[in-house]
Amino acid sequence: MWNLKSVTHKMRLKNSMILGALMLFMQCAEKTATDYTIEASFASKAPVIDGKADEPIWQQAKPIALKENRSGKEVLEPGLQTHVKACYDDSTLYFLFVCNDPDIWAAFTQRDEYLWEEEVVEVFIDVDDVPETYVEIEVSPSNVLFDSYIVDPENIDVPATARFNLPRLKTGVTVQGTLNQREDLDSSWTVEMAIPFEDLATATTENVGPETEIKLNFYRLDKNQGEEPTSYAWSPTGKSFHKPSVFGKLVFK
């Protein structure tokens, strides 16, 4: 014979367990989406933007690794790994990408060509409280630049947004191998970026600097001969890179 009080108690206990598990899952999911931070070290002397990464500040800065974007798994093959470092001074934000790559190539030669169709590194930077608006910067192995300002990640007007230019942005690239010689084995390519804080200012965040809460994500597209194209991300998005809800944060040391 059923005991109503016992059944009710068991149902309440079961519901509480389900609710607790759900809350724990949501907390974990939230942490997964926001627990990405990269530390920017202060540079007493600005690095030379030549793609060489031989300044002391780059030896001090802590690296972060990009993961497989679709699966979120770590990249275990050393020859394909990507690491990013950050530093800053009073006026400028600096990033360093080191991309291990056995086949380094780039056909585009003009600024704002569609670099994502080839090999490229990317950084998205958001300095205000509007998630849908952020700066996108892409650099190819031949140091060709694509820069834009996104206002609607779901419906990007590429020709319109590509007309945006960061006026003082500087980039430098070195290739450890032979660019566009597809039959040999390359090693890596290195990218340096210098982004003045004033270039990142928006209508709602007019003064950008180390006191600004900056959200961002890093990406890489790798397309090696004879292999399937691969995408990497610091905070994986699963598919399209344009997912501001999973942007990480920049911490100024």
From TrEMBL:
CDD domains in alphabetical order: CBM9_like_3
One GO process term, biological-process aspect: carbohydrate catabolic process
Single Gene Ontology MF annotation: hydrolase activity, hydrolyzing O-glycosyl compounds
Source organism, top-level taxon: Bacteria
Sequence ranges assigned to domain Carbohydrate-binding in this UniProt record: 49-252
SUPFAM superfamilies listed in its UniProt record: CBD9-like
InterPro entries membership: Carb-bd_dom_fam9
Protein name per Swiss-Prot or TrEMBL: Carbohydrate-binding domain-containing protein
